[in-house]
Amino acid sequence: MSSLLVQGRVALIRIHPIKALDPVSLPACRIATRGGLAGDRVWAMYDAEGRWINGKRSAAVHNLRAGYDLAAGTVTFSLPGSAAAVTFRLPGEVARAEAWLSEYFGQRVALRHNLQGFPDDTNAPGPTVISTATLETVCGWFPGMTLASARERFRASLEISGVPPFWEDRLFAATAGETVPFRIGEVLFAGVNPCARCVVPSRDPRTGEVIPSFTARFTAARQANVPPWSPAARFDHYFRLAVNTRIPASEWGKTLRAGDAVALP
Predict the structure, then answer these.
(1) How far, CA to CA in Å, does 128 sit from each of 60, 119, 213, 217?
(2) Shared-domain flag, residues 34 and 47
(3) Residues forming a β-bridge with 44
(4) Are residues 234 and 251 located together in one domain of the fold?
């Protein structure tokens, strides 16, 4: 890592305090124990069978708005078309928040807390990385999709500007099990794999409306736009976007900042 080439800068840092719900953009964020972003997905909603309640299992997630006051430790839930909003302090009012969410989802909801977060990929629990140009390109595949909507559909933690579309495909190796080292600001990362997507990006993040044949259209366009630096062997299918990462223990406690340079060997 002694010779690094700057290839872009951090444009956005986003955390999702409650897994599956709305994000918060931050000017800076500390790396937590286990390598996630501090405060990211530290709360999760569970059903009575102990399964996550998320966009994969419940389209009702998309109509629920969540706003946060991180300093006060509160979340405010609201619904489109309703002037009513309700605020809960977490963890002090967890039981009240669970009761409200249970009524909204029509099933028992339990809120669980983990300071290390609830990552989808426990083998690569670091921030997901994507470029602004990639998201802009995807918008071009689906007329009417805005950049803001694409960000909410794909829910990446770190967005990188100043690089070409699918630049992030440089961040994983051609061989599974190998990683690609890179640095963002003072933090060393290991790029692990291209992120497999689920049904969530096909739905409008604010209404749940589905784009017809989204997966097939996305997959065809993604395959047709694979850059020369992308390791083809890592694509068992092309419904993949963004890169999953790990952050070694030596980097835990360091801070990422908007504007940080991204550097590769």
Answers:
(1) 24, 10, 25, 23
(2) no
(3) 112
(4) yes
Q: How far apart are CA 106 and CA 44, in angstroms?
A: 17
Q: Bridge-partner residues for 255, per DSSP?
A: 30
Residue 2 above 70 pLDDT?
A: no
Per-residue pLDDT at 173 exceeds 90: yes
Task: Note the pLDDT tens digit of each residue in 79-115.
Answer: 988 878 999 999 999 999 999 999 999 999 999 999 9
Assign residue 32 the CATH number of its domain: 2.40.33.20
The mean pLDDT value for 118-132 works out to 96
**Structural domain boundaries, residue 130:** 5-38+121-264
The stretch 61-69 carries a mean pLDDT of 96
Alpha helices by DSSP H, listed for 112-210, are 132-141, 147-154
d(CA 52, CA 45): 6
d(CA 15, CA 1): 28
Domain check: are 129 and 195 in the same one?
yes
Q: How far is 261 from 7, CA to CA, in rounded Å?
A: 7
Based on the structure, what is the number of domains in the chain? 2
Domain co-membership, 127 together with 154: yes
